Structure formats: C-alpha cells, structure tokens
Amino acid sequence: MQLVGDELHAEAARHCDGKALAPLSIKIGQISFFIVLALIGKSQPVASLAAEQWG
Question: Global pTM?
Fold first, then answer.
C-alpha cells in the first residue's frame, strides 16, 4: 500500500538515505496521530463546571 506519490517519495529520498527515511516516516505518523488525539480530547469551554456536571 502506497500512501504517497512517487514524486514525493523521490523528493524525500533525495534528502535522506534509506536508513533515515524510515524513522522520518514513523515520526511523521506519530505526530499526525497525536494531533488527531489532541483534537478528540479537546475540552469544550463551559460557563460553570458545576452546572455542566450536575445539570
């Protein structure tokens, strides 16, 4: 399964060798995962916590 196009992969391979390209891909995946996780867990502003908790 290919997630990026051949042009993008070739551009990244120009700047990194094979040993550096794999960790770079993993780090980008981790950052993307934690961004989504932060958006899911984002708290919503409320006027009063007591009103929201017991209401």
Answer: 0.56
